Amino acid sequence: MKGKLIAVCVVIAGVLIPGTVGCGQGREGEPRGKEIALPAPATTGGMSFTEAAAKRRSVREFAPGALSLEQISQLAWAAQGITEAGRGLRTAPSAGALYPLELYLVTKDGLFHYLPQGHKLIQLSDADGRGDLSKAALGQSSVAQAALDIVIAGVFSRTEAKYGERARQYVYIEAGHVGQNIHLQAVALGLGSVSVGAFRDQAVSEALGLPGDQTPLYIIPVGHPAA
Amino acid sequence: MKGKLIAVCVVIAGVLIPGTVGCGQGREGEPRGKEIALPAPATTGGMSFTEAAAKRRSVREFAPGALSLEQISQLAWAAQGITEAGRGLRTAPSAGALYPLELYLVTKDGLFHYLPQGHKLIQLSDADGRGDLSKAALGQSSVAQAALDIVIAGVFSRTEAKYGERARQYVYIEAGHVGQNIHLQAVALGLGSVSVGAFRDQAVSEALGLPGDQTPLYIIPVGHPAA
């Protein structure tokens, strides 16, 4: 991804340098960026499950207009939000509660990594990476046009440690759980979304600067449906 | 699966023998069984998406008690129901709208194949196959105990024809879409469910008598949560 990485925090040997308040823990070994607190998600009310399931259709054409931080918060929560404090269980089930998925958000304002713990974002870049991401997705215009692209990446090794060769299919199924939650939440917010599975993995990894152990599995453009 | 196959319809060279009214079209080449019309599913109302996502937890212990035909209808619809008549689009998105998944229901009353077109079941057996299915799932008691086991099978070739080697991951992701819809619908109905991915594929195929081109991907026991 072009544009400078936002690394306002410096960590040496695990010690946060004083004066770098507001910095959050990103993925291990990554540049740590500005932390953005998300508003608390709604966990009751809104559209019924049945209505969202009945109304969901793939939306590939979007009208201009960014999403609000409330909408982004709600979508991130639906995808991977923590719904049980004790063990940190989430909105979508995961084999052995190992949670091998990482969520990235790409908007005109930059690249963000969602941290379920604390329900917050870490800003990794301030450049609009949607164009590069669209190129990595074989030029699909929905990716360039949507206000928000959600990229689900998987760390197979987290699940392989317990489940061996069956792990990969579990991780893909879990990406599906998360994807469906995103689609349904988008409908419930009056937004549209589409499943994008056709992309060059390596190009997406480069566009997002993913760590080597993360594989992009799924891209979901979300935005205001075109009239 | 033990117990006799119910094959009240006879089809020779594609012609339904007269006098076998009430028989439905199953999967190609399979014994055709008794057709069971399902009540129309609710497509509005009920629990909100956010509340269902917040409340969903894996439920592995079930109280006795069968599900009503209304509940079975609603779960099957959430999984694979048709929500757009024109192209037959469904509650969960599928790459290229190719719909490689087949849904089987296992209860004390037998084995049933869900047909999205017409929203109906075809009864393939009248034997309770939950015990055999549990054995194929490494003895997991939730599978034997649940009122209903939903088995999602995939026909990889349907998606491979268009998407080649990327098809397998698409099919697993789609099983995840469907699984999440089932989990959310279960919560909305006051029921519980759990993801079961650990099973011997061949043993599940034999327990259900799956055609050779179908691979079991996912088992979801659903029932009344134990107190």
Task: Explain this structure.
- The structure is a homodimer of 227-residue chains.
- The first copy, chain A, is of the alpha+beta class and 227 residues long.
- Chain A has one domain: 3-Layer(aba) Sandwich (NADH Oxidase), CATH 3.40.109.
- The first copy, chain A, contains seven helices and eleven strands.
- The first copy, chain A, has helices at residues 49-55, 69-80, 130-136, 141-145, 156-163, 167-188, 201-208; strands spanning 11-12, 15-16, 34-37, 82-84, 89-90, 101-107, 110-115, 120-125, 148-154, 192-193, 215-223.
- In chain A, the strands form three sheets. Chain A has a seven-stranded antiparallel sheet with strand order 3-8-7-6-9-11-10, with helices on both faces. A two-stranded antiparallel sheet of chain A has the order 1-2.
- In chain A, strand 6 (101-107) and strand 7 (110-115) form a beta hairpin.
- In chain A, helix 3 (130-136) packs antiparallel against helix 7 (201-208).
- Chain A starts with 10 loop residues before the first strand and ends with a strand.
- The relative contact order of chain A is 0.20.
- Chains A and B meet through helix 1 and helix 6 of A and helix 1 and helix 6 of B.
